[in-house]
């Protein structure tokens, strides 16, 4: 049934349009509606991908993230505002509630307009820190655009980001050929707290970049807010409920102007790029990827059906997902995983060097096993693991806890009870050869007893008979 | 053992004593020892034979039957215990039930023997031999049931 | 003697019949009285299961009735001791549940549909009637006076010491176990007197039943061997002893091993070794006896005796050796605490923390037994006067039980039967003496002289000795002395009845699930917070929400709220209980990971501060600390909960550790809001509380009952955006996070 339904739904969706896996209602908050023109290409891109955009001013009365206690939109795009505050409808608390309710937020900052204090405190809650100077921007004297910022060096050119770690999938590498350049004009760099595991930078500043406040007239910067790769240009936070929050340091990246602009990089460290040519920025493609990721168009994992069943002696039991097992049972666990890629679900395969693991745990894991691919369907991969339950009774969990950067969280817990041997499941004593002597001991005793009783009863008349016969004689 | 200890006794008593009987024994230590030794060679056999004869003469046939059965149980129980010592008691419940069946049976049979023994008539005013036998069957059946149940 | 006493009233065979009918009627009336006096709680409150343990028994019985015996036997309970679970079928004494299950099915077969709850509630009173009858039989074996049996039955029926554990609703193992105890003893005495294997086997069967019903069977296991041992030492060995004991031991031990929970204990644990040892000793003695009969040689006999003693010594040494090497389990902690009342406090706080394991206070004896307690020694003294095998039993029993009842409150229960029996013997002796002795019309000189002679030769019975001691005309025979003594005794008996009724209705009939209090106008006010809270849990939480509470409430939560619990009153796993104790007594930041690991959804605490209910968790808190300290001495320290002056305080002067403990916070959270500012008052401890109440970050209040007795907190999930709970809670309260403008020390770089 579920299969049929999901196919049906899938079919319907693909007919309508390519769309995010979590819905298509998008709220764009833009203070001056006139500014809409600046982002026309970007917004057109979004609409072409099936988003139904609502554009509102932060001051609008009817602007509400929640309607009757339910989330009114799936996604929120915050474009930079002129005014200092965002108004009563977009307080940090409401935004946080929006995330907690599963909504995705794409936040853009702009060094030209100071970030509203509400947003600053929201970012602070998420352990994302902005420069203390309101007007600080990222400057790089080695990787700037010669065409537009020859003087100020504030349009930083960055190549496509590498994967965070070798075993993490890179969604933002474009076609992977390299050589593409992203322009990051007049953006605000962020630093990330060290404790939160939920934060991941997508785009980091080059090694030579630093945060600089143009209002400071001092020639050299004594104590910059942050330098080099510590400065994150685009940061993401994926909440535990897989709601996504992305900060793009430079709102100008989304503007039409930078989609089409041609840039020429400066001479970098060690003379890199001395022969640079004018190239078109990769902003449009890159921003599409960042937005697509934020709005659940890529990197979303879905768990299909989870099955576990008894697999005693290779014979599969007909009962799936029983509530109770016995210690030392052989069981098989299956989980179906799919990944969403722009407009369809496809089979999920973890990046090279990574495996999906199954834990069988009570208080602590008793087993931690890699899940192997059993079959692949059109939309999903079925992973499986078979093992013998531990010799410990209790309440256990089949747990798949797959949390990787840029993939939505998979945390599946199926609770089963593992019981002890029932009284009739122990080997009977006649099966155990060691017990035979004692069984025969009992048998001998009992037969001996029966014989004795018989003899006794038989011997009763003997003296009588003797005496009577004696009398007779 | 009895003669041995007697043989040792005279040595200290010969040192200082006023009792007539011991002085008599102590006055002639060496011959007495010899005589005890010679008697010790004979007496156990004699005693055993005497007892045996006494037993054969005085014991009713039924009691003999009981005794045979008890001897049989001792043998069975001893074998089981020996096996346990040699081969280990792996299915412990089996060993327990097997062994205790024999022991219990032995004890019950001993009870029967005591009850039916004419010498103990005074003690068992209310228990006639027939009643004793019925009790015995009752007890044994329960015992067997438990043992078979326990050995699983 | 009985004939002699009864003759004046009833003569001949018709007399015997009348007496029989009378006796039967009296016994029935006693049983009825026994049942009736236990129904106070049902009438006062309702037909409800009481206290703590009965809730588990009730739940187990329901499971048994629902799923049948085999499923019950293999029952793995995944709703207790989360996440360990409990092999319930193998770790309980099934006698009680099986008994009520059998009654239930029997009644249904008779087409009398009775709710299983009512059977459980009324099982204890029902069995108390049977106990009265068993006491009657037991006493009749002890004495020839028929009135003693009836008196003993009556005493047993209404003695508060027994009622305390058998009021309607007190559905505990003791409910049937005391009946079985008395009946097993009766069968034992019978077997011993008759010397019959039949009675011995019956005794063993009931012993088996007793084993299946109550852990206190160990008392029988040790008392009967001790009795036999004393008899042997007194030179009273007879074939009867051999027959009775060996039959009992052989069958009884096997029977007890059929219970899964007991298993191999009878040959493995030290508590059972005395029975085995005596069994061996009897074989030796019996064998020696047999040989002696065959060989009447004096030297031989002494030698064999020496041989027997030697074997006994060797066996004892082997036992010690086996215990040391660990083949036989050493004495358990509970056992040590029987000898040294201070032992448990030092080594096993969990045992000491149970209120019924406390040493008995002296007034409790009078409270529970009233006049019986001073008649008791008299009865024992009478047994000394006429020392037969069975009287030895009374003496041994009374000595042992007196000692044990002094050590543990709950063992008062085993003392009660023997007190009833011997008190009844003493009383009936007095009454027999004064009621039925005919005054001799003319006591002649010769009679007096004769009596004096007889007494000097020390062969006279007590009665004659009494007669001889008193001047016949002014002594026992005078109408005045008769009437005064008899009326005094009657008055005592009446007072006894009054006392028992009073104690039963006032002290032992409270279900403790429901509390009663008096309104100012004298009307009764029911405080039903427990059930209110459990009902809330049942209706508002998911089926598998795990509840953490102190173990006292585990069974009730399981029974009434039907939710899994972490720990309960079956205190088998000290570490698990200590874990809960640690979670309760640590700071929130320490407790939270523990609760996460154990998948706790709700935490339940009992707080009596508003109502003045003294049995609350803050008063039990020190035990939690002690038990936790036993496992984590570095992390939880009892000392930290006392002020510098060694006081245990909850007010302003409380220590920081105390104030930061989860238990303290949960108890007093929001409590200030009930009072005008600065006047929060704890009515149990009678102190004023700090003006600012505690704040809670990782749990949130979910429910508080009407009188604040039960407070339930929900454990928060991890923060969605990765903050710790303190800052998340502070953000929710509207506090802005302080911007870390000035970095102290070197910058912390993020490495990836």
Automatic annotation (TrEMBL), chain A:
Q: Which terms in the GO cellular component ontology are assigned?
A: oligosaccharyltransferase complex
Q: In which pathway does it act?
A: Protein modification; protein glycosylation
Membrane-spanning residues: 435-458
Protein name per the record: Dolichyl-diphosphooligosaccharide--protein glycosyltransferase subunit WBP1
Pfam families, sorted: OST48_MD, OST48_N
Tell me the ranges covered by the OST48 middle domain, including all copies.
317-460
Q: Which GO terms describe its biological process?
A: protein N-linked glycosylation via asparagine
Localization recorded for this chain is: Endoplasmic reticulum membrane; Membrane
Q: What is its main location?
A: endoplasmic reticulum
The entry assigns this protein to a family as follows: Belongs to the DDOST 48 kDa subunit family.
Q: What does the subunit comment say?
A: Component of the oligosaccharyltransferase (OST) complex.
Cross-referenced InterPro entries: DDOST_48_kDa_subunit, OST48_MD, OST48_N
Q: Upper taxonomic classification of the species?
A: Eukaryota, Fungi, Dikarya, Ascomycota, Pezizomycotina
Instruction: Kindly give the membrane topology term recorded for this protein.
Output: Single-pass type I membrane protein
This protein's UniProt keywords: Endoplasmic reticulum, Membrane, Signal, Transmembrane, Transmembrane helix
Q: Where is the OST48 N-terminal domain?
A: 25-294
The signal sequence is 1-18
UniProtKB/TrEMBL annotation, chain B:
Alphabetical UniProt keywords: Endoplasmic reticulum, Membrane, Transmembrane, Transmembrane helix
Q: Where is the composition biased (Low complexity)?
A: 11-40
State whether it acts alone or in a complex, and with which partners, per the record.
Answer: Component of the oligosaccharyltransferase (OST) complex.
Give any single GO term for biological process.
protein N-linked glycosylation
What the entry lists under PANTHER family is as follows:
DOLICHYL-DIPHOSPHOOLIGOSACCHARIDE--PROTEIN GLYCOSYLTRANSFERASE SUBUNIT DAD1
- Record's protein name: Dolichyl-diphosphooligosaccharide--protein glycosyltransferase subunit OST2
Give the protein's function: Subunit of the oligosaccharyl transferase (OST) complex that catalyzes the initial transfer of a defined glycan (Glc(3)Man(9)GlcNAc(2) in eukaryotes) from the lipid carrier dolichol-pyrophosphate to an asparagine residue within an Asn-X-Ser/Thr consensus motif in nascent polypeptide chains, the first step in protein N-glycosylation. N-glycosylation occurs cotranslationally and the complex associates with the Sec61 complex at the channel-forming translocon complex that mediates protein translocation across the endoplasmic reticulum (ER). All subunits are required for a maximal enzyme activity.
| Superkingdom per UniProt | Eukaryota
Q: Where is this region: Disordered?
A: 1-40
How does this protein lie in the membrane? Multi-pass membrane protein
Give TM segment ranges: 68-88, 133-151
From TrEMBL, chain C:
Q: Quote the Pfam families the UniProt record gives.
A: STT3, STT3-PglB_core
The name under which this protein is listed is: Dolichyl-diphosphooligosaccharide--protein glycosyltransferase subunit STT3
- Segments passing through the bilayer: 21-43, 91-107, 119-138, 144-163, 175-208, 214-235, 242-267, 273-291, 303-329, 364-385, 392-413
Extract one GO cellular component term from the record.
oligosaccharyltransferase complex
What is the membrane topology noted in the UniProt record heading this document? Multi-pass membrane protein
Location of the STT3/PglB/AglB core domain: 546-596
Q: Which organism is it from?
A: Hyaloscypha hepaticicola
User: Where would you say this protein principally sits, based on its record?
Assistant: endoplasmic reticulum
The kind of enzyme this is, by top-level EC class, is transferase
* Span of domain Oligosaccharyl transferase STT3 N-terminal: 22-423
User: A GO biological process this protein is involved in?
Assistant: protein N-linked glycosylation via asparagine
Enumerate the subcellular locations listed in this protein's record, separating them with semicolons: Endoplasmic reticulum membrane
Enzyme Commission no: 2.4.99.18
Similarity annotation: Belongs to the STT3 family.
Q: Give me the stretches of Basic residues compositional bias.
A: 735-752
Kindly indicate whether the keyword Cell division belongs to this entry. no
Q: What is this protein for, i.e. what is its function? A: Catalytic subunit of the oligosaccharyl transferase (OST) complex that catalyzes the initial transfer of a defined glycan (Glc(3)Man(9)GlcNAc(2) in eukaryotes) from the lipid carrier dolichol-pyrophosphate to an asparagine residue within an Asn-X-Ser/Thr consensus motif in nascent polypeptide chains, the first step in protein N-glycosylation. N-glycosylation occurs cotranslationally and the complex associates with the Sec61 complex at the channel-forming translocon complex that mediates protein translocation across the endoplasmic reticulum (ER).
- Its catalytic activity? a di-trans,poly-cis-dolichyl diphosphooligosaccharide + L-asparaginyl-[protein] = N(4)-(oligosaccharide-(1->4)-N-acetyl-beta-D-glucosaminyl-(1->4)-N-acetyl-beta-D-glucosaminyl)-L-asparaginyl-[protein] + a di-trans,poly-cis-dolichyl diphosphate + H(+)
Q: Which InterPro entries match?
A: Oligo_trans_STT3 (IPR003674), STT3-PglB_core (IPR048999), STT3_N (IPR048307)
Highest rank taxon of the organism: Eukaryota
């Amino acid at each position: 049934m579920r299969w049929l339904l999901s196919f049906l739904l899938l079919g319907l969706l693909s007919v309508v349009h390519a769309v995010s896996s979590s819905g298509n209602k998008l709220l764009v908050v833009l203070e001056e509606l006139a500014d809409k023109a600046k982002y026309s290409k970007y917004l057109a891109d979004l609409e072409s991908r099936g988003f139904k955009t609502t554009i509102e001013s932060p001051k609008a009365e009817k602007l509400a993230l929640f309607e009757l206690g339910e989330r009114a939109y799936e996604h929120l795009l915050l474009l930079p505002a002129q005014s200092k505050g965002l108004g009563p409808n977009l307080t940090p608390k409401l935004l946080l509630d929006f995330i907690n309710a599963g909504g995705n937020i794409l936040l853009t900052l702009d060094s030209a307009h100071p970030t509203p204090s509400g947003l600053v405190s929201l970012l602070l809650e998420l352990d994302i820190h902005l420069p203390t100077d309101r007007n600080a921007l990222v400057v790089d004297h080695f990787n700037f655009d010669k065409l537009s910022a020859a003087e100020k060096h504030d349009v930083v050119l960055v190549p496509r980001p590498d994967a965070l770690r070798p075993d993490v999938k890179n969604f933002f590498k474009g076609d992977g050929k390299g050589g593409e350049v992203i322009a990051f004009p007049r953006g605000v760099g962020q630093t990330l707290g060290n404790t939160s595991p939920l934060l991941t930078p997508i785009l980091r500043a080059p090694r030579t970049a630093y945060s600089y406040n143009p209002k400071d007239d001092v020639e050299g910067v004594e104590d910059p807010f942050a330098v080099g790769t510590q400065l994150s240009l685009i940061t993401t936070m994926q909440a535990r409920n897989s709601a996504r929050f992305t900060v793009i340091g430079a709102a100008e990246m989304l503007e039409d102007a930078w989609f089409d602009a041609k840039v020429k990089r400066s001479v970098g460290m060690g003379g890199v790029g001395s022969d640079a040519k004018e190239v078109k920025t990769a902003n449009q493609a890159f921003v599409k990827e960042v937005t697509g990721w934020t709005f659940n168009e890529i990197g979303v994992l879905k768990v299909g059906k989870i099955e576990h069943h008894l697999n005693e002696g290779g014979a599969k039991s007909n009962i799936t997902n029983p509530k109770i097992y016995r210690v030392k049972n052989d069981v098989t666990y299956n989980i179906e995983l799919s990944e969403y890629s722009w407009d369809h679900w496809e089979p999920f395969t973890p990046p090279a060097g990574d495996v999906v693991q199954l834990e069988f745990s009570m208080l602590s894991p008793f087993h931690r096993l890699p899940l192997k691919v059993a079959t692949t369907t059109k939309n999903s991969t079925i992973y499986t693991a078979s093992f013998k339950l531990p010799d410990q009774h209790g309440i256990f969990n089949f747990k798949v806890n797959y949390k990787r950067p840029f993939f939505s969280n998979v945390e599946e817990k199926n609770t089963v009870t593992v019981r002890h041997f029932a009284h009739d499941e122990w080997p009977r004593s006649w099966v155990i050869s060691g017990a035979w002597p004692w069984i025969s001991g009992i048998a001998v005793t009992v037969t001996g007893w029966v014989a004795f009783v018989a003899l006794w009863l038989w011997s009763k008349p003997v003296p009588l008979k003797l005496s009577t016969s004696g009398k007779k004689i | 053992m009895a003669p041995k200890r007697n043989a040792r006794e005279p040595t200290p008593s010969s040192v200082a004593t006023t009792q007539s009987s011991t002085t008599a024994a102590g006055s002639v230590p060496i011959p007495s020892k010899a005589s005890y030794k010679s008697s010790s060679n004979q007496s156990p056999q004699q005693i055993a034979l005497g007892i045996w004869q006494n037993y054969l003469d005085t014991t009713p046939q039924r009691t003999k039957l009981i005794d045979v059965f008890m001897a049989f149980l001792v043998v069975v129980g001893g074998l089981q215990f020996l096996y346990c010592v040699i081969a280990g008691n792996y299915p412990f419940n089996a060993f327990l039930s097997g062994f205790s069946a024999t022991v219990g049976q032995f004890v019950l049979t001993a009870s029967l023997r005591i009850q039916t023994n004419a010498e103990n008539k005074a003690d068992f005013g209310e228990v006639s031999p027939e009643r004793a036998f019925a009790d015995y069957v009752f007890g044994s059946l329960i015992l067997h049931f438990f043992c078979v149940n326990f050995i699983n | 003697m009985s004939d002699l006493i009864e003759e004046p009233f009833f003569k001949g065979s018709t007399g015997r019949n009348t007496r029989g009918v009378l006796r039967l009627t009296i016994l029935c009336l006693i049983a009825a009285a026994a049942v009736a006096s236990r129904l106070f709680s049902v009438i006062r409150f309702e037909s409800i299961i009481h206290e703590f343990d009965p809730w588990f028994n009730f739940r187990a019985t329901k499971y048994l009735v629902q799923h049948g015996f085999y499923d019950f036997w293999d029952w793995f309970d995944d709703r207790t001791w989360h996440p360990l679970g409990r092999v319930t079928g193998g770790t309980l004494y099934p006698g009680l549940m099986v008994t009520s299950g059998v009654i239930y099915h029997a009644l249904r077969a008779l087409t009398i549909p009775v709710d299983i709850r009512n059977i459980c509630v009324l099982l204890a009173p029902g069995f108390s009637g049977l106990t009265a009858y068993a006491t009657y039989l037991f006493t009749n074996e002890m004495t020839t006076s028929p009135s003693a049996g009836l008196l003993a039955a009556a005493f047993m029926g209404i003695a508060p010491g027994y009622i305390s554990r058998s009021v309607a609703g007190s559905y505990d193992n003791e409910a049937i176990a005391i009946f079985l105890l008395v009946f097993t003893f009766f069968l034992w005495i019978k077997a011993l007197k008759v010397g019959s294997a039949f009675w011995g086997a019956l005794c063993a069967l009931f012993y088996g039943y007793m084993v299946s019903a109550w852990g206190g069977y160990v008392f029988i296991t040790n008392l009967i061997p001790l009795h036999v041992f004393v008899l042997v030492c007194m030179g009273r060995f007879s074939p009867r002893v051999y027959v009775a004991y060996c039959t009992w031991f052989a069958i009884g031990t096997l029977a007890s091993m059929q219970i899964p929970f007991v298993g191999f204990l009878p040959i493995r644990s030290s508590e059972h070794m005395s029975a085995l040892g005596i069994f061996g000793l009897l074989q030796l003695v019996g064998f020696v006896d047999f040989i002696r009969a065959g060989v009447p040689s004096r030297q031989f006999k002494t030698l064999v005796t020496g041989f027997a003693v030697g074997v006994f010594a060797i066996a004892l040494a082997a036992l010690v050796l086996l215990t040391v090497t660990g083949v036989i389990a050493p004495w358990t902690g509970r056992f040590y605490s029987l000898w040294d009342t201070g032992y448990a406090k030092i080594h096993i706080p969990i045992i000491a923390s149970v209120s019924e394991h406390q040493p008995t206070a002296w007034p409790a004896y009078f409270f529970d037994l009233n006049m019986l307690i001073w008649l008791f020694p008299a009865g024992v003294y009478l047994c000394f006067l006429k020392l037969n095998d069975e009287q030895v039993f009374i003496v041994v029993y009374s000595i042992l039980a007196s000692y044990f009842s002094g050590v543990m409150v709950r063992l008062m229960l085993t003392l009660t039967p023997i007190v009833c029996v011997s008190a009844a013997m003493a009383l009936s002796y007095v009454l027999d003496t004064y009621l039925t002795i005919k005054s001799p019309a003319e006591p002649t000189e010769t009679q007096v002289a004769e009596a004096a002679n007889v007494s000097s030769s020390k062969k006279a019975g007590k009665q004659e000795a009494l007669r001889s001691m008193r001047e016949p005309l002014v002594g026992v025979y005078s109408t005045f002395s008769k009437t005064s003594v008899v009326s005094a005794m009657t008055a005592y008996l009446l007072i006894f009845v009054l006392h028992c009724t009073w104690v039963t209705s006032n002290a032992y009939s409270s279900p403790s699930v429901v509390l009663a209090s008096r309104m100012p106008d004298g009307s009764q006010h029911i405080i039903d917070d427990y059930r209110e809270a459990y009902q809330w849990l049942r209706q508002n939480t998911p089926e598998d929400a795990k509840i953490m509470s102190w173990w006292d409430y585990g069974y009730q939560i399981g029974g009434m709220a039907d939710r899994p619990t972490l720990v309960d009153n079956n205190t088998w796993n000290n570490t698990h209980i200590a874990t809960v104790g640690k979670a309760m007594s640590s700071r929130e930041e320490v407790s939270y990971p523990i609760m996460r690991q154990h998948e706790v959804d709700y935490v339940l605490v009992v707080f009596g501060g508003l109502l003045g209910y003294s049995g609350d968790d803050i008063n039990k808190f020190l035990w939690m600390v002690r038990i936790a300290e036993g496992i984590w001495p570095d992390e939880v320290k009892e000392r930290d909960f006392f002020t510098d002056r060694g006081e245990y305080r909850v007010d302003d002067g409380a220590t920081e550790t105390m104030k930061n403990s989860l238990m303290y916070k949960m108890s007093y959270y929001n409590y200030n809001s009930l009072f005008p500012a600065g006047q929060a008052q704890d009515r149990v401890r009678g102190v004023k509380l700090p003006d600012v109440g505690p704040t809670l970050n990782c749990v949130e209040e979910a429910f508080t009952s009407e009188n604040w007795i039960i407070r339930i907190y929900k454990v928060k999930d991890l923060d969605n955006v990765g903050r710790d709970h303190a800052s998340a809670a502070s953000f929710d309260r509207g506090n802005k996070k302080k911007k870390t403008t000035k970095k102290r020390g070197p910058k912390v770089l993020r490495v990836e």
